[in-house]
Amino acid sequence: MPFEFANEEPLSRVKVYVRLRPVQKPSPMIHVDDETGTVIVDVLKSSGGGPPRSTIEQSAFTVDDIIRTTNQQRAFEHCAKEYTDEFLNGYNATIMAFGQVGAGKTYTMAGDTKIHVHRGFIQRAIGQVMEEKRAHPEAGIVVYMSYLEIYEERMYDLLQQRSTDLMIIEENGLIDIRGLAKIRVETEAQAIKWFNEGEKQRSYGQHLLNQQSSRSHTFFTLYMERRVGRFHTEHDTIVAKLTLVDLAGAERLKKTNVERGGRMRKEACTINKSISYLETAIYALRVGQNYVPFRQGKASTLLKESLGGNCKTMIMICLWLEDCFYDETVNSLRFAQKVKFLKTYPFRNKKLDCATATKRRHLQQIANLQQEVALKDALQGRPGLSFDDLT
Ligand SMILES: Nc1ncnc2c1ncn2[C@@H]1O[C@H](COP(=O)(O)OP(=O)(O)OP(=O)(O)O)[C@@H](O)[C@H]1O
């Protein structure tokens, strides 16, 4: 569906929250300051020369806020509701969970599908959107949903019984998935039923750190179209999508103790590789490289818009502060530190007439070609060409 990008919108910063899984024995080397939203980590440094000695230095990681509550409604209202509001207002939004295995990503996004009070951000976002649809019949809100899994770098449609050939396509600069079912939903109950069916199809495994460990990345997306303004012409229609992402956790093979040569070890290696592709892309964005290697992995390709394009994005970093996970905690905090400086360019998406849509498409094609030239220059070690602004 062609739509317009209004260009007076300001930049938006990716917001980063930390959520702490309740722990028995928190690490004495990690200190949490709720007031300032800072996690301080003691780092042992050996000093050179003379008899071996170690000193303790501290690294501080500040995020937008730290969430300790196990109460899902409070966590949703504090961190995710505003992104669902933005979506209903015509902005693309992404809510994403990141962290080591067992840290609470799936608990945050999907929660416990059998216990109503423990339902996650996905079901709560569905509830909020469907309530808006019910409360504003004059807006003619139309909602679709899709549920995608990336397992071993292959994509599966969780809303269809049999797997189909899904393919990532880029059209008008926008990433989409050919073959992915988008199901129209009329009520909250209907949407939750579809979601629960999709959950049953997900790939889970059991290892030392998690009885029910997700072995894949999942992307749950709501699509909305609604009329705004007094006169309901096509120009008054806004469209947006809200994506809730549950990334599989990077894992240390020694700690999960998965069998050498077994299926779970292979899954873990693929997950670790895809997380490292994502980190590489984030690094390139952060330092402003001309070419950002999103396309190395499926998850990073699909997150292109969320991390640097037309989207308002929030990332929940889930931490498990047990002493034995010190290294994993520091890695997750380093990730938080990188993403919190990312900028996105969100626009309120309006449906367009045909001529404007064609002009936009051509401009986008030029921008894509310029990117390809930049990539070729980078690969051949030539200084980059510069281009005038597109008009
Ligand atoms: N904030 C929390 N409050 C209460 N329980 C939690 C919280 N976070 C995690 N848990 C519990 O910890 C366990 C592991 O959580 P979860 O499966 O969500 O981890 P994960 O990060 O998705 O792990 P994986 O990457 O292995 O899938 C679950 O039993 C979950 O209920």
Automatic annotation (TrEMBL):
Pfam families: Kinesin. Keywords: ATP-binding, Coiled coil, Microtubule, Motor protein, Nucleotide-binding, Phosphoprotein. GO terms for biological process: microtubule-based movement. Coiled coil: none annotated. Residues 13-342 form the Kinesin motor domain. One of its GO terms (cellular component) is microtubule. Signal peptide: none annotated. ATP binds at G99, Q100, V101, G102, A103, G104, K105, T106. The keyword Coiled coil applies. The keyword Ribosomal protein does not apply. One of its GO terms (molecular function) is microtubule motor activity. Belongs to the TRAFAC class myosin-kinesin ATPase superfamily. Kinesin family. This is Kinesin-like protein. It comes from Ceratodon purpureus (Fire moss).
